[in-house]
Amino acid sequence: MPGAAPKSICDVLPAASALLHVPGAADRLGLAEWTGEVDRVAVVLVDGLGWHLLPQLAADAPLLAAVRNGEVGQAQPLDCTFPSTTPTSLVSLGTGALPGQHGILGFTVNVPGTDRVLNHIRWRDDPPHDQWQPLPTWFERLAHAGVAARAVLPEWFIGSGLTAAAYRGAQFRPTNAAEDYPQRLADEIAMGPGLVYGYTADLDTAAHVFGIGSQQWHEAATRVDALLTKLVEALPPSAALLVTADHGGLNVPANARIDLDADPRLTAGIRVVAGEPRVRYLHTRPGAFADVRATWTELLAGWADVRSRDDAVAAGWFGPVDPRHLDRIGDVVVTCTSDAAVLATAHEPPESARLIGFHGAATAVEVGIPLIVFRR
Q: Coiled-coil region(s) at which residues (predicted)?
């Protein structure tokens, strides 16, 4: 399980900020040795670009293939945080903190004291973002240091709770689907010194809907490579481009899908189901904890690791956990260890059960992500 990895997604923005001479920022990734002196840094997060997926997409991505061959740029592997899911990773990137500290502890979590399940992707203003995620972001730190920090994001991201939790302090530059997104990013980088952040979900969407290795996934890889190529070609001499990801992923076959809502033994004693198919948080009814843990341990033997919240926290899966965030983790934490998924068809939208690609757990193909550094 990933905890405080020697090199992780938490180190990316502090290292980028160090290149821009922000006080207190540490370059733990050794970027300065490669970039030299720069006055602007672009950070682009490619959703779903796992380190272990790079060989599969190389044939459709000439730039990334050249990186793998050592012909251009510099690449190193990092870990994302646990769970290996987009909301958790984006906030770990933005704050430089582990999930136990920032509190975005999964794709969905139970709001303590209620039976409500908060979907972090659909989260707007309840709970308030600065209470639910109380840590400062590196965008705020950059702004306080007088360094411009701009985030070029789809317009529907602006105003969401997750955007605020991960990127607050940034100057938002909304875009729409009709715009040339690579050109918008390139224009922002050329505009002046500072940090520019960009994001693309194209590869991850194709992985979820059509599967890793599908024709649609390879087509998405081509589009991502074209975006990055455009940025590299347009980089000013004083700029560096950092490319990273939030997680990898794997395909889950039909015979490895367990629907908890189809088995009364798995629903017995459960008050709230949260998390996602690769990492389930089970909040139990009073007095039912021991039976739930024992039943799930027996029925998912060989498929998943089943343990108590206390054991998962003690193992360091989330890093140090702020007591304010502890109850967001299930009483029982179920983490898939094989290519399995635990569906919850009565609790989640039907499209969730139709996905092919998944992530969230702690296997190497899910937590391994790249950091690729380009100079002109």
A: none
Note the pLDDT tens digit of each residue in 180-234. 999 999 999 999 999 999 999 999 999 999 999 999 999 999 999 999 999 999 9
Token representation of residue 162: 């997750």
CB 221 within 8 A of CB 203: yes
pLDDT digit string (tens) for 342-374? 999 999 998 899 999 999 999 999 999 999 999
* pTM, two decimal places: 0.96
Quick count: other Cβ atoms within 10 Å of Cβ 144?
A: 12
**How far from each other are the two terminal CA atoms of the chain, in whole angstroms?**
37
